[in-house]
Amino acid sequence: MDLHSPAKGRSWKCLIVFVLLVFPTSTFVLGHTTNDGDGIGRVRRSYETKHRGKDVNVKRGPGGGKLGGGGRDGAGVSVFATENCTVVMAQLGGTAILPCVVRKFNTGVVSWIRKRDYHLLTVGLTTYNTDDRFMVEHVRHLQNWGLLIKHVQFSDAGIYECQVSIHPATSIIVELKVTEASAEVLGAPDLHVRSGSSLRLVCTMRQSTEPPSYVFWYHEQRMINYDPGVHVIADRSSSILLLPDADKSHNGNYTCCPSNAIPASINVHVLNATAEEKPAAMQHANTGSKSMYCSSPRGNAFMVLLLLALFLT
């Protein structure tokens, strides 16, 4: 085709403009490719994508547990029913139970050792520690020799070893992690309600491993759980305070105080049913919305320069 004739040159330019306008430059980017040295671009496939879902070099025993860990006798049969490297979570001030379930054996004694300082904690049912927070929780018919730690402290976190003194001696490790539970009142720090409506405050527990013995609600400095008209509904993970008919006397700070978690507070504002007393948060409207479609500045500049070059030639 003769592109130097004026008529055909204009047709060729129009065709290029039409293609650029209909198909933006960003649509031609099909994916990331690499050059392997032979001039051919190939899409890169990662090793992780290729082997996704495969558990490489992990052998499992008859019960589904991973082989290669501790806790096996000379015949290759697992001594422990508890999986090696078990992780136990406990909250500060709570109770931790580190499991150690062994299969039936005729000889041998179960011992617990703290790996941080290699301190012998228990042998059989006997505690070899001056700290009376440590003891063995033995369930005979389950062959469970769990290590029980009361009033857990941050210093208790770490690695513990459960050992059976058969020949040769075998053991598993259990890791204890200690968290600090805290309360959270939904809607904090401020809640606005209209006078005459129902006031409902929900207190939830975060990083809690055991339910609190009680949850007390305070209005300012006074506990109100048993006040007339106040209803408290509690379960294992939350406590709900209900006031059926809120008025100005219910203004102020409310605090949720669980027995085993950091307390949380919220400020309640009871408003009269007038537009002037609406909180600012209720008056805010959407100031605008961002466009869902974004164009590439570099692609737009390239198109403009190319169009100018075509029409100026």
UniProtKB/TrEMBL annotation:
Residues 51-70 are annotated as: Disordered. It comes from Nicrophorus vespilloides (Boreal carrion beetle). It comes from the Eukaryota. PROSITE patterns: IG_LIKE. Residues 61-70 have a biased composition (Gly residues). This is Lachesin-like. Keywords: Signal. Residues 1-31 form the signal peptide. InterPro entries: Ig-like_dom, Ig-like_dom_sf, Ig-like_fold, Ig_sub, Ig_sub2, Ig_V-set, Zig-8. The gene is LOC108567824. Gene3D superfamilies: Immunoglobulins. Residues 93-165, 168-267 form the Ig-like domain. The keyword RNA-binding does not apply. SUPFAM superfamilies: Immunoglobulin (SSF48726).
